[in-house]
Write a structure and sequence with these properties.
With 136 residues, the chain is an alpha+beta fold. It is elongated. The strands form two sheets. Strands 2, 4, 5, 8, 9 and 10 form a six-stranded mixed sheet that branches. The chain has a four-stranded antiparallel sheet with strand order 1-3-7-6. It has two helices and ten strands, in the order αβββαβββββββ. Strand 8 and strand 9 form a beta hairpin. The longest helix is centred in the first third of the chain and has 22 residues.
C-alpha cells in the first residue's frame, strides 16, 4: 500500500468515526433555558421569573412546564400570576413560562427553578436555581 493510500485510509476512518459519534448522540427532546440570577427585592414588591422550554412535540407529546420553589409547584393564584405562550419554529416548539410572584414577603426568599416534563414520560429538563432574597 502506498503512503498516500494509507494516509487517505486513516483520514476516512477519522471522518467515519466523527460521523458515527454524532449520529449516536440522541438529541434532547426537551430543554429549558433562562439566565442564572440572584434577585434582591423589597418586601411588598413583586418579581418576575421567565423561562423557555424548547421541545419536539412529535416525540414529547404534551408538555408541562412551570416554576417551582424548593420542589413545590407555584400554583396559588392569589400569590403567583403565570402566563404561558408558545411558538413553533421549524419542528421545535418554544413554550415561554412567565411567573410573577406578588406581594413579596420574607418567606418567599429561597431558590426557584423552572422544570419541563413531557407528558409521554420520554424526557424532562430543569434549569439552574434562581435565588430570591426578600429584604425588609
Amino acid at each position: 500500500m502506498t503512503r498516500l493510500s494509507l494516509s487517505l485510509l486513516v483520514l476516512l476512518s477519522l471522518v467515519t468515526l466523527c460521523v458515527s459519534s454524532e449520529e449516536d448522540k440522541a438529541p434532547d427532546i426537551v430543554e429549558v433555558f433562562y439566565k442564572q440570577n440572584t434577585i434582591d427585592a423589597p418586601r411588598g414588591s413583586s418579581v418576575t421569573l421567565s423561562c423557555e422550554a424548547r421541545y419536539f412535540s412529535n416525540q414529547c407529546g404534551l408538555l408541562h412546564a412551570t416554576w417551582y420553589r424548593e420542589s413545590t409547584e407555584l400554583t396559588d393564584p392569589r400569590k403567583y400570576l403565570t402566563t404561558v405562550s408558545e411558538t413553533v419554529v421549524n419542528d421545535t416548539r418554544r413554550r415561554k413560562v412567565v411567573t410573577e410572584i406578588l406581594n413579596l414577603a420574607p418567606e418567599d426568599s429561597g431558590q426557584y427553578q423552572c422544570k419541563a416534563e413531557c407528558n409521554s414520560g420520554t424526557d424532562s429538563a430543569m434549569g439552574h436555581f434562581i435565588t430570591v432574597n426578600v429584604k425588609g
